[in-house]
Every structure is written in C-alpha cells, then in structure tokens.
Amino acid sequence: MHKSYGRHQVLRGADLTVDPGQLVAVVGENGAGKSTLLKALAGTLATDSGRIEVSGTLGYCPQDPVVSDNLTVDQHLRYFAAAHHLPDLRRGNELIDRLGYAQYRHQAAGALSGGTRQKLNLTLALLHDPDLLLLDEPYQGFDWDTYLRFWDLVSDLRARGKAIVIITHLVFEQDRFDQLADLTSGRLTPRPANLRQPGQTTEDDHVRH
Ligand SMILES: Nc1ncnc2c1ncn2[C@@H]1O[C@H](COP(=O)(O)OP(=O)(O)OP(=O)(O)O)[C@@H](O)[C@H]1O
C-alpha cells in the first residue's frame, strides 16, 4: 500500500499478510503511520495505490471511539446489531460481561469514563464476531484488571481462528504476539515475536515488582 498526505509519503509499499488464528502487532514510532495503515486496511481511508484482500468479515476498533454521546450503551448495541443483521444481542451481552461494565448499560455514552467508553468501542468492533480484527491501541484507558480481561478475550479469539492485528506501543507485551510488523519509513518489516532482548521486561515481571 502507498498513501501520502499531500507531499508527506506515509506508506511506501507497506505489505502485510495475516493468517487465520494469527496475532500480529504493528509497532513503530509515533507518526510512523500505524493508524494510517489500519484505517487503510479497514477501508475507512483510501490508499493512493495498492491492494487489500480480506477473506471473511472485518471488525475495526479505531483509536477514537465511534460512539454517539446521546445513545446509551444498550442503544449502541441494538443499533450496531441491527446494522450487522444480528438475530439477537447475545454476543454483545457476553462482551459487556467479559469486559465488566454491565452496570453502565443504561448510561449515555457521553457520560461514560474514558476507559468504559473504550470498552464500548471494542464491544462494537467485536459484536458481529468478525474473522479479521483491526485494533488500534484498544486498551487505552483500561485499568489493569480490564487489560488482563482484554488479553483473555484476545486469546479466545485467536484460538477460534480469528486473525488479529493490534497496534501497540508496549514493549513488555510484545511476546504475546505471533509476529511483530515494524513500520519504518513507510514499509513493514516482519520479525518474529518472543525475541526478548536482554534486560527487557515482561508483563509478568511488572506484576511481580
Ligand atoms: N488526515 C491527515 N492529514 C495530514 N497528515 C496526516 C493525517 N493523518 C495523519 N497524518 C500524518 O501522517 C503521519 C502518520 O500518522 P499516523 O496517525 O498514521 O501515525 P501513528 O504511527 O499511528 O502515530 P501514533 O503512534 O502517534 O499514534 C503523521 O506524520 C501524521 O501527522
């Protein structure tokens, strides 16, 4: 994919393949073009050239929540369920329980805390149980318990064969991934995960400290 904003070439032949059941991290410096890449993959931003092939359904959790301030959590669920032609709200209810915010179901999104708003954002992206998930720093604002619940959820999705792409900045979580895709100078360089550098800490180390 190629994408420029004016004369600023952000993506210069970025290339990524994600298989079913694979969990891929997109890493890179601030401004490297990670969100641009995800928007392009999600189809919300037109590329200048390139090709995107998605087999199956797609779920996209953008960095900025897509929620409407005046609708309640429940109303969001019903609205998105109708858009996806879902027969019921079973999956939405399950996600609300797993992310632990059932007590806010009848609250307007505009009155939710940042973390709870992000839980709703994530729920809406997962509502139709998509085959490919594009998550742009999906745990922003999550407390530690929710952060762990999030990774439980991701493990289940991966085990069920979902392909998952997550933009992350957190070095300590990088050994959770099957692959790291490093976005530098507009191109993606794949490197296997689980290559911890000496002195690099993991989440478990953080828990112990
Ligand atoms: N709509 C836009 N118009 C012009 N320039 C843009 C636009 N969106 C992004 N950019 C620029 O493109 C570059 C890549 O932005 P992008 O948000 O994709 O980076 P990122 O890697 O996601 O950054 P971060 O880690 O800070 O979230 C930045 O220099 C940004 O200023």
Automatic annotation (TrEMBL):
All residue ranges annotated as the ABC transporter domain in the record: 1-207
Keyword entries, A-Z = ATP-binding, Nucleotide-binding
Report if keyword Aminoacyl-tRNA synthetase is assigned: no
Q: Which SUPFAM superfamilies match?
A: P-loop containing nucleoside triphosphate hydrolases
Indicate whether Transport appears among the record's keywords: no
Superkingdom classification of source: Bacteria
Q: Which Gene3D superfamilies match?
A: P-loop containing nucleotide triphosphate hydrolases
Question: Positions of the region Disordered?
Answer: 188-209
Which GO molecular function annotations are given, in alphabetical order? Answer: ATP binding
| PANTHER family documented for this protein | ABC TRANSPORT SYSTEM ATP-BINDING PROTEIN (PTHR43038:SF7), ATP-BINDING CASSETTE, SUB-FAMILY H, MEMBER 1 (PTHR43038)
Q: Write the protein's name.
A: ABC transporter ATP-binding protein
Species of origin: Actinoallomurus oryzae
Q: What is the lineage of its organism?
A: Bacteria, Bacillati, Actinomycetota, Actinomycetes, Streptosporangiales
